[in-house]
Amino acid sequence: MILPIFTYGNAVLRKIAEPITIDYPKINELIDNMFDTMYHAEGVGLAAPQIGLPIRVLVIDLFPLKEDNPELGDFKVAMINPQMLEMSEDEVTGEEGCLSVPGIHESVSRALKIKIKYFDTAFNEHIGVFEGYKARVVQHEYDHLEGNLFTDKVSPIRRQLLKSKLTNIVKGKTSTSYKIKVA
Q: At 116, which CATH number?
């Protein structure tokens, strides 16, 4: 089922998400719905707060980037209760956008390499080490679980320049090809 994506200004995007337990109802259905919603919106990552749920669940599928980056094509993951363990001091800057902040793309610095602990849909524990673009996308989605958006990471001057665009998103004055839930 395709769900509406909550946009900038919704309080749920600023909450620190809560961990879930193995008995969370219909977790596999929720994750399937998150993937469906992400694919419909032509995204490569989605966190539960973006669909209005303040829980620690995120999904990523980089297959759409396979043509230009074959090494990304097989990176598909659902992470439950992820916990960042390490982030390299080395950073790389790259352009980011977000389904919850439609129409805005900005350069953001992120750790080049990360180590993260998470559970899969069967609640098996994993420790993943990711570099480059995989690390960037995981960090972006992880930030959603911490109540942060990529726009928080841009310079104060850039943020000031974005203010009117962000205000328009809050007011619902934005155009998307997917269903949204404005503040």
A: 3.90.45.10
Active site residues: 141
Question: How far apart are alpha carbons 182 and 121 in whole angstroms?
Answer: 30
Mind listing the pLDDT tens digit for each residue in 29-57?
999 999 999 999 999 999 999 999 999 99
Question: From start to end of the chain, where are the E strands?
Answer: 5-6, 45-47, 57-61, 76-87, 91-98, 101-111, 113-119, 125-131, 180-181
Which domain range does residue 111 map to?
Answer: 5-181
Q: Could you give the number of structural domains in the chain?
A: 1
- Report the candidate in 148, 149, 146, 139 with the shortest Cα–Cα distance to residue 114: 139
Residue 10: name the closest of 41, 48, 50 by CA. Answer: 50
Residue (of 149, 48, 31) closest to 97 by Cα position: 149
The overall average pLDDT reported for the chain is: 97
| Cβ within 8 Å of residue 29, ≥6 positions away | none
Per-residue pLDDT, 142 = 98
Please name the residues in contact with 55: beta carbons below 8 A apart, sequence gap of 6 or more.
Answer: 17, 18, 19, 20, 24, 48, 49
Tokens 């000031």 map to which residue? 160
Cα distances from 132 to residues 55, 60, 98, 99, 136, in angstroms, run 26, 15, 18, 21, 6
Which helix (H) or strand (E) element contains residue 31? helix 27-40
Q: What's the angle, vertex CA 177, arms to CA 173 and CA 183, rounded to 5?
A: 40
